[in-house]
Design goal:
6-stranded parallel sheet; two-stranded antiparallel ribbon; Rossmann fold; alpha/beta
Length: 210
């Protein structure tokens, strides 16, 4: 079976930052980074890759990162943020990609969803609803999320209903292999005076246990 990937970058990024605050409270959050290559290989786990969709928002612009994701074989769906800083239909695009997979590909296959978001969009779509549709069509489901951003109230009932076909992979268990801290000097204004604060680096650990 192939692994088809739905990657909600905003959910993974924000959940990772919140996890960093708990695990490394002294770190300057601007230095926090996700190690995309290790995350990708955690999901694939030496299996055959199918379709891969990556959704996120700009700004900030990050062309080297988007190019890196494309080189992993992901189709990127990047939408511009609206004036108040919210996202513009990123989730809905990924919901559509999930629906197309169910229409175009015959199961059994594996659908890996990198998001713990359980919210229903303004258009009535959601990751959980698409996941339930996939399960009813004999797909295997893998949900990858940080614990802090996992909508357990919604997803636990699905996991309990389909114990042999759906599973949750907690990214917290791989935190030091999926993240790193970038070395950088930051300038802050403290009591009216500018001061440089240096952030020590923390390298990513090798990905083990998969």
């Amino acid at each position: 079976m192939k692994v088809h990937v739905i990657w909600d970058n905003s959910n993974i990024w924000l959940g990772g930052k919140d996890t960093c605050e708990g695990k490394e409270p002294s770190v300057i959050l601007h230095s926090f980074r996700i190690h995309f290559d290790n995350l990708y290989h955690l999901v694939l786990n030496n299996r055959i890759a199918g379709e891969r969709y990556f959704g996120g928002s700009v700004p900030p612009e990050c062309e080297p990162l988007w190019d890196f994701v494309k080189n992993l074989g992901c189709q990127t769906n990047l939408l511009h943020r609206i004036e108040k800083g919210g996202e513009q239909a990123v989730d809905e695009v990924l919901h559509l990609k999930m629906a197309n997979l169910l229409l175009d590909i015959n199961p059994p296959e594996i659908l890996a969803v990198l998001s713990g978001n359980g919210h229903t969009s303004d258009y009535g779509t959601s990751f959980p609803e698409q996941i339930k549709r996939a399960l009813q069509r004999n797909w295997q489901i893998e949900i990858y999320s940080w614990e802090c951003s996992m909508s357990h109230k919604i997803y636990d009932s699905i996991l309990n209903q389909y114990p042999t076909k759906a599973k949750y992979i907690k990214l917290d268990d791989y935190y030091y292999s999926l993240t790193f801290i970038k070395e950088k000097a930051y300038q802050y204004s403290i009591k009216g005076q500018k001061q440089d604060i240096y952030q020590e680096p923390r390298r990513v650990q090798p990905l083990k246990g998969i």
